[in-house]
Amino acid sequence: MDFAAWTGREETATDTLHPRQARLMQATLDHAPALGAGDILPPFWHYLYFNSEIPASQLKEDGHGRFLHPVSPAPPHVGRSTGRNCSTA
pLDDT digit string (tens) for 8-52? Predict the structure, then answer.
């Protein structure tokens, strides 16, 4: 598979991380919703934020939008983190 067209591509998103989404996830996991402004999010919880605004009809077979490079065979979806810390606003 030729990945040349994907080499070096990146996508940047900026947004305000409101703690409500993280507190809702805490409640979903049966934890006391205690995260507040400025708290560090648990690993991979940044996926609650920065979701692409893509209509469902434009999603690919694997559920991703326009950015994820093609992989064959597709591995199970695993968290891909830059290792950066995200904190709520």
Answer: 777 787 888 899 999 999 999 999 999 999 999 999 888 888 777
Rounded to the nearest 5°, which phi and psi values hold at 87?
A: -130, 155
Q: Say which amino acid occupies 27.
A: A
Q: Who contacts 33 (Cβ-Cβ below 8 Å, separation ≥6)?
A: 23, 24, 26, 27
Half-sphere CA count of 79, side-chain side, radius 13 A: 10
The size of the chain, in residues, is 89
The verdict on pTM exceeding 0.90 is: no
Pick from 88, 3, 1, 72: which is nearest to 40 by CA? 88
Specify the amino acid at residue 8: G
What residues does each domain of the chain span? 16-43
- At residue 4, the pLDDT reads 77
Q: Are 71 and 60 in contact (CB under 8 A)?
A: no
